[in-house]
Each structure stands twice: as C-alpha cells, then as structure tokens.
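Supplementary notes for students who missed Thursday's class. We covered one full example, reproduced here. Read the sequence, then the structure, then the short commentary at the end.
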Amino acid sequence: MTDLEFISKAVDQRQKEILGASDAIWGFAELPYAEFQSAALLVKLLKDEGFAVDEGVAGMPTSFVGRFQVGSGGYKMGFLGEFDALDILSQEAANPIKTPIKDGAPGHGCGHNALGAGALAAAFALRDYLVQNSISGTVFYFGCAAEEGAGSKQFMARAGLFDEMDFIYTWHPATQNGVDAQASVAIMGANFEFFGLTSHAGGSPHLGRSALDAAELMSVGVNYLREHTINEARIHYAYVDAGGVAPNVVQDHSLVKYEVRSPKVYQVKDLFERVVNVARGAALMTGTTMKYEITMAFSDYIANDALAKVADEALRAVGAPKWSESDYSLARSFLNTYNAETKESIREAAVKLYGEEKADEALEQPLDSVIHPYDPEHAGIASGSTDVGDVCYAAPTLNLRVATACIGNVGHTWQMTAQAGSEIAHKGLLVAAKAMALAAVYTMQRPEVIQRAKALVKKQNGGRYVCPLPDEIAPPIGKY
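Structure (token representation):
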C-alpha cells in the first residue's frame, strides 16, 4: 500500500465520525470564546482515540491541545483546528434561499466547522501511519478558539505551545484548491474610551465636556490620517457606546473600537501608535480624558516556502474533490443568489484564474475541480488577517485551501453558512484532511525540508517569536 493509499483509507474509514463532527459543530454555531459544545466534542473524539488532552490552555477555556506519542523521540508534528462561528449568519444547510434557522443567530459563515473536523481527521490519519509503520513521533492537534474574535493562537504562541514543533499544517475552506502563496496582513485592535462631564446641553453647555465630541473628532483625525498611510494599510472602527440617547445631555462617556492593518507586524505597531496619538489629540481638544485597551493583535501570515512545495505535491497526489451533478446544481443556485455587480466581479476573477475561454464554462459548473499550482513568484498580499500568522512566526507553518463553496462565493455570508453544512463542504474537508496528513508524511520523510523550513522561520522572526500583544494583555473573554 502506498502512502497515499494508506492515508486515504485512514481518513475514509472515519468518514462518518468526522462528517458527523463537522455537522454537529455547524449546528452548535458558537461565537468566539464560547465554543464550549464544539470544544467538548473535539476533546471527546481525541480522548476516544487515545490522545492525551490539555484543556483550557493559555487562559482560554475553549482552547486545548491533544497529543499522541508513538515510540520515543521523532518529530513533533501538528495540525491547527478552528471551530468558532460568526454572528447573525444563521441559515439552513444547503438552502440557496435566505432562510435563517433563527433570526440574528450565529452561523458558520467561514466554514470553521469543516476546518476543525478536517484537521482532526488529518491528525488521526497521521497517528495511524506512525503506529502502522512503527515510526517514532508525536502528533499534535491544536484546538484554537476565537479566530473570528480576538484570536487564540497568539496567546498560545506566547505561552510557548508551538516552540518545539517541527512543522504544522492547517487549511481553510475556500472556493478553489491549492497552496496559497499569498500573505495575509497583520492587525491590531483596541477599545478607546473618552470621559467627560455631563451638563444641560441647552442651559449650561459650557459646563459640559463631551466625550461624544471627542470620539467624533477622533474619527475626523483618523480620516485625515488615512491619506498618509501606505496603500496596503486599513483602519476600521465601530461605535460601541455613543454616550446615551438624550441629545439634551452632554455625553460624559463614549467608547469606540479601532482596528488597524498593515502587511507587516512592525508596520501595524507604528500605525497603531499614530491612531493613539489622534485619540490623545481628540481628548485634548475637547477637555476630556482618554484611555485605551489593546484587545487583539495578529502577526502577518507568510507561506513557508519549504512546506508549501511539499503540500503542493501532496494536494496534487490526493486530487481535487470529485463533484457530482447535484453538487454543481447546488453551487449554481448559490452563485445565482448574488446581485449583478457581485456576479460581474466574480466573472472578472474567474477570467483571471481560468482564462477568458474557460471562465464561462467554470461558472456554469461553479465548483473548482483542479489543483492550482503553488506560485511564490506571483504571491500578493490578501487584505484579511488571521492568527495563524502568529503560529508561522513561532514554528514552520503552512496553510492550504480546498474548495467547500461555489466559485466566487463571498465569505462571511449566509451563503457560506449554508454551504458549510452541505455535501460540498463534506467533500472538501475530506480532501483537505488527506492532503494535510500526506503532506506531513512527505515532510517527515525529508529532513532537509524541515531544516529549511526552520531556517525560514528564524529569518522571519529574527531568532525568536515576539508576540504583538503586551505581556499583560490577557484573552479578552467576554469583552470582545
């Protein structure tokens, strides 16, 4: 039996259990830091397979680490699992008509139910391979809470949980298949609070000091700041507390959230300090006081080139998901839910990916059925952020993508929630599990790849991982 045949069989024989876990987590649809049922299910499956499990790691009740050691010594190999949902994206599974299961409830609009279950299947298959071939090594499954919130992996990295890992693989549900060479940007977020004095807005406004004015002046200042940042930078904000609903009372309190993004973590820190200075100026102009609390920060993700080439080889060996006519029909139904402007954007992207001649054909059967080549020479920067970036600064780490939704699908939507609970996602997660486990086998067999992967991390982090969060910042459970 070849390595591919062994890994495929190991994943397939647990298909019912793994798909059941994905569907159960999809049904739980739990928000960041509150994934108690999802974490408990994954922990139980790990323990049932003989894994030792440490729960509540790095100060987060729903983060955990499972490990299975075979023999003594050998490589330490890991998989990252996520399982949190997004707010307000409740939707019936496989239904292309917007039909929330419960209005305003969470839903798996990023497919993390499939992500966590697929990574678990990869961990089990790799463990089986070590046992069957009497190879020493330790398989790790990292249960990572709150990727959609303030994150967990940076806290886990700060706690040293990845320090001794030889390599780590993960994946993400996507609209196409391949090892993505794109980097993701770093991010830092904080709550800014302004404190003033109440007064009668009509009778004695001169005695009041408006915290709302301060928050709005901060918005004005940041708007001017945007002109003087690098093109790739982003600054987002949201009002949490505008100081009350009475316009005739000068507001003595306001709270606004800000998040800043830049390609590199050092750039994010610089930009964030400029935003803090704008807030200080707004407080000075209004006679208020200001305090801020950093709530989250992710390092940028960079594909580890050494691991990427191995993962590309493994994904090609496994092959793209095998779609049925019913899969294509369902995917077309979801594609047709988008408006004309979005469809045109989707077609432009399809032309770029498949070429002018094949774009319309791809959109007629809108499920990716090829493996796109890993291409580091044309790697760009995605404007999104992920706490996987902190893992790649701590240990050799690689993320691959497998189709679980129609071509052009927009993430963080009810359409994604529906597809994450469908047969399309089932097929994608099984391919991802096989590709990750096979990539781990190939990597384990090539010590020179592991050494090069570690050298790339050392070059990237300067010799050691430095968390972008100050040491005193704890996971913002119940605050974010």
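Commentary. The chain has a mean pLDDT of 96. The first strand starts at residue 52 and ends at 55. If anything here is unclear, bring it to office hours.
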